[in-house]
């Protein structure tokens, strides 16, 4: 047994099998994959990684399995699956995945391959079935404990991201959620846990708009993704290579190439682009929206000013599908809670189109972008 002190959950205890998995090269790499990619350039505390998130998810999944009275083997496999659910994350977490997935697959697909055919599989198969662990890790059966709307993955990342960014909005009553869990052909929640589930949904909504959709975080993401796309055009990455890189290892590789060096240097020294224009998407006319989405909009700005990056309004899904069991049977959280079901529409009304550029030309770019949108009316 091994005890690890976690700043979010306190003491996390690993079995000898779990400790062996943690000690593998595949898992240790997660120490170098930041949970929120380049967000630390905006929130300096956001240096936490997929490593500690995976430990926290395993911890919460074990508590949830205990509440559902799973037998010892089932509980152990759920914990193993939660521990390894993010082992396939490529550098820069979801921000990198958006660029890499067309060629290499999602982190779930990469992770499944690692669980089924790597030193991880050899260790798992000594006591359990790696195929079963892989299926649970990505949501099959009791794997809903990990991946559902109120699953261990979501609860841990909200708590952890709030802790490390220093914002209060991700604080949720996770102990109440766990206490009111039940299983009725699917992971469900007793009606007395409704308010706790609502707090999770509201916390997620607030974290998206405070942290994940913060304008400077979006700019850092755009710059990173631009550099990743250019790097993939200049150097052939192979499937076996990418899951072995940490964030910093890949950044240093990218510094070696003229097309990407400038982008990486800017990120590492925090020379971020500035907002040229940020405008509420809901306030634009249909014609202006068509213009913003057109190739003409981006090509004119880029041909005239060079380095201009455009971020379309980010999408937010309320995902309130968890079943809540009441006297009238099972209904989704969205059906039970007008508050939860309203979050997606509220997010859409707050979503913005963002145009950014180097500081010295940002004002000119903003004037030109606004004029183009006016032209589209």
Rounded to the nearest angstrom, the radius of gyration is 22 Å
Structure summary, number of beta strands: 9
CATH fold node name of one domain: Hypothetical protein af1432
Give me the CATH architecture of one domain, please: Orthogonal Bundle
Along the chain, the helix and strand elements come as EEHHHHHHHHHHHEEHHHHEHHEEEHHHEH
Q: If you average the pLDDT, what whole number results?
A: 94
Task: Determine the number of helices (DSSP H or I, runs of at least 4 residues).
Answer: 21
Q: What form results from the Cα inertia axes?
A: globular
Structure, explained:
This protein is α+β, with helices and mostly antiparallel strands and 377 residues long. Among the domains are: 2-166, Orthogonal Bundle (Hypothetical protein af1432); 273-314 and 351-377. Helix content is 55%, strand content 11%. It contains 21 helices and nine strands. It has helices at residues 16-22, 25-28, 50-67, 72-83, 93-104, 107-116, 119-124, 130-137, 144-147, 152-165, 174-179, 194-212, 215-234, 247-254, 258-268, 286-293, 295-305, 333-336, 338-341, 343-350, 362-375; strands spanning 2-6, 10-14, 181-183, 187-190, 274-280, 309-311, 323-326, 329-332, 352-357. Strands 3-4-7-8 form a four-stranded mixed β-sheet. Strand 3 (181-183) and strand 4 (187-190) form a beta hairpin. Helix 6 (107-116) runs antiparallel to helix 8 (130-137). The longest helix is centred in the middle third of the chain and has 20 residues, at 215-234. The N and C termini lie far apart (65 Å).
């Amino acid at each position: 047994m091994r005890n690890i002190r976690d700043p979010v959950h306190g003491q996390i205890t690993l079995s000898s099998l779990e400790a062996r998995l943690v000690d593998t090269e595949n898992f240790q790499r997660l120490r170098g994959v930041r949970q929120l990619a380049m967000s630390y350039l905006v929130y300096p505390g956001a240096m936490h990684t997929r490593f500690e998130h995976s430990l926290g998810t395993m911890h919460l999944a074990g508590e949830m399995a205990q509440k559902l009275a799973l037998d010892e083997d089932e509980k152990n496999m759920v914990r193993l699956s939660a521990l390894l659910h993010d082992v396939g994350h490529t550098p820069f977490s979801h921000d990198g995945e958006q660029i890499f997935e067309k060629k290499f697959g999602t982190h779930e697909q990469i992770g499944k391959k690692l669980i089924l055919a790597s030193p991880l599989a050899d260790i798992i198969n000594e006591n359990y079935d790696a195929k079963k662990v892989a299926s649970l890790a990505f949501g099959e059966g009791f794997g809903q404990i990990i991946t559902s709307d109120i699953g261990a993955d979501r609860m841990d990342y909200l708590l952890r991201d709030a802790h490390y960014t220093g914002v209060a909005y991700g604080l949720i009553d996770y102990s109440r959620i766990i206490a009111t869990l039940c299983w009725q052909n699917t992971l469900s929640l007793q009606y007395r846990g409704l308010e706790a589930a609502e707090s999770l949904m509201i916390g997620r909504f607030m974290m998206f708009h405070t942290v994940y959709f913060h304008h400077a975080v979006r700019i850092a993401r755009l710059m990173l993704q631009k550099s990743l796309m250019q790097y993939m055009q200049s150097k052939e990455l192979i499937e076996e290579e990418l899951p072995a890189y940490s964030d910093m290892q890949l950044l240093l590789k990218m510094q070696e190439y003229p097309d990407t060096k400038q982008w990486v240097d800017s990120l590492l020294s925090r020379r971020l682009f500035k907002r040229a224009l940020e405008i509420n998407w809901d306030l634009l006319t249909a014609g202006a929206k068509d213009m913003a989405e057109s190739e003409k909009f981006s090509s004119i700005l880029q041909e005239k000013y060079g380095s201009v990056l455009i971020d379309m309004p980010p999408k937010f899904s309320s995902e309130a599908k968890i079943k809540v069991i009441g006297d009238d049977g099972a209904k989704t959280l969205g059906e039970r809670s007008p508050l939860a079901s309203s979050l997606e529409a509220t997010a859409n009304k707050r979503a913005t189109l963002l145009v950014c550029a180097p500081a010295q030309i940002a004002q000119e770019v903003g004037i030109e972008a606004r004029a183009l949108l006016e032209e589209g009316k």
